[in-house]
């Protein structure tokens, strides 16, 4: 059974940090580029960061560049999103996504991040 399980969200004050985890099971994580998305209330889902299969290439949205870092460890079947210097506008549900471009598109259930100002 394919699963992506996010964790690590919560309530944090502005300027604080959180580390989100996404644990994969039921498929070969190392074959999938991975992405973190977020969706705030009333807004469209936004791509936050992505990472290549081996982790050598990463991209971050301009809105989080310099504050967030995506990483992965295929041996641990885990992808992380380190979030520093959080702002109120980072409040959203965060989702991890695995998509190999061959019709396999997997999503986690999401984890809520709330940043209080």
Oligomerization: single chain
Low-confidence runs of at least 5 consecutive residues? none
Large-scale geometry: globular
What helical percentage do the residues reach? under 10%
Measured on Cα atoms, how large is the radius of gyration? 13 Å
Total helix count? 0
Average of per-residue pLDDT values: 97
Number of strands: 11
Could you give the order of the helices and strands? Answer: EEEEEEEEEEE
- Largest β-sheet summary: 7 strands, mixed
State the end-to-end CA separation. Answer: 40 Å
Given the helix and strand composition, which structural class is it? mainly beta
Query: How large a portion of the residues is in β-strands, by DSSP E?
Result: over 45%
Mind explaining what this structure looks like?
This protein is mainly beta and 117 residues long. Helices cover 0% and strands 52% of the residues. The protein is built from no helices and eleven strands. The chain has strands at residues 3-7, 10-13, 18-25, 34-39, 46-51, 58-60, 68-73, 78-83, 92-99, 105-107, 111-116. The protein is globular. It starts with a strand and ends with a strand. 31% of the residues are buried.
Task: Give descriptors for this structure.
mainly beta; single chain; 4-stranded antiparallel β-sheet; globular; 117 residues; 7-stranded mixed β-sheet
């Amino acid at each position: 059974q394919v699963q992506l399980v996010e964790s690590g969200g919560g309530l944090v004050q502005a300027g604080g940090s959180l580390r989100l985890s996404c644990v994969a099971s039921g498929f070969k994580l190392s074959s999938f580029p991975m992405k973190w998305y977020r969706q705030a209330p009333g807004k469209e889902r936004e791509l936050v960061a992505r990472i290549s299969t081996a982790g050598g290439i990463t991209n971050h949205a301009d809105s989080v560049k310099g504050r967030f870092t995506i990483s992965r460890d295929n041996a641990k079947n885990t992808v992380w999103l380190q979030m520093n210097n959080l702002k109120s506008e980072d409040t959203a549900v965060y989702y991890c996504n695995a998509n190999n471009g061959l019709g396999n598109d997997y999503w986690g259930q999401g984890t809520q991040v709330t940043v209080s100002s």
